[in-house]
């Protein structure tokens, strides 16, 4: 039951984010009608194309079982969305009640054990057509029968509860990733170096069956950003043979080198007092090196302590509005999930996480070519941290990022190179 409940909860969260929190009433936040039955039968029709069913074309083509399994998961998204909607409209109970009832179906026991066997092509197609017939029916929804037929299809497709869950979570994360990267406005790239993103996601899971959802999201982000990097690389910061110390007898670093190009993220790590923040001070020309050269494009910085980023006597809006238009500001706030009303407050009236996101917004609105981040997400929880870094990395076509962090997991995810000092 646990895996069924988790999948239902994830689907509800995704639908809330994509369609608005009243999607169970049959319409999106934009007033567009939702028809989950149509989604099911249209996706099932695509599923049939995993086989060489056409008598006039590609008659010797082998079944594409990998594609079939992805399509099965897509149908499951729509079936459980329909089920949640049905329970809400018919006042049958909440998600927990639905999960319990699904787990008590006789057919549930068939998927709750390991399976790697496939049925014949004709058997799978016949089962898919049964699901299409149920979703096309104008009679009262036979939800339990629809779910039971689907569980039969799961087994016939070489899946079981564990593999269905794993692929479902992967596809759910991929759907969230798509939404965050322009899927609705048509700018998202679905083919990655000749492969559909579904295939890439499935391979990540197969290579690391224990990967966590947030780590999967990070890996997808890293691969997606790598698609276009080569087209806009140009040097925006160069540190050559720089030596510095607060006394000449005791240098913090000697003959230090960094070259950063537009589209790159480089992370600087090291123990406290090793000189990480000093590198930023040198780039900003607040101090001068003993030797070596530094060249950098227009830059802005996000500090570790967000309260030091704003004057305490003025509202945030007073300190941000002069760097961007209202439209630019509204768009930036939405991208980082920060309410405009918070900008009317004084710095001390906000939490550290809210203030840090505001400082990131201000830094981005200055349109830097080089963004300096000094522990920028240390005041944020893990979920917000991931969202913020993902948002920043979407702008790598316009800039490069130099990051100071103690978080090796974050550095490993986002950085093209990790520099230890």
Describe it.
This protein has 421 residues and is α/β, with parallel strands linked by helices. It folds into 2 domains: 2-178, Orthogonal Bundle (all-alpha NTP pyrophosphatase fold); 231-420, P-loop containing nucleotide triphosphate hydrolases (Rossmann fold, 3-Layer(aba) Sandwich), CATH 3.40.50.300. The protein contains 16 helices and 10 strands. It has helices at residues 2-19, 36-48, 65-89, 95-103, 108-111, 121-136, 143-156, 161-180, 197-207, 213-226, 276-283, 316-320, 326-335, 352-365, 382-393, 408-414, and strands spanning 191-192, 195-196, 235-244, 253-261, 265-269, 291-296, 299-302, 370-374, 400-404, 417-420. Helix 1 (2-19) runs parallel beside helix 8 (161-180), helix 2 runs antiparallel to helix 6 (121-136) and helix 10 runs parallel beside helix 15 (382-393). It is elongated, with a radius of gyration of 26 Å. The two termini are 49 Å apart. The model has no long low-confidence stretch (mean pLDDT 88).
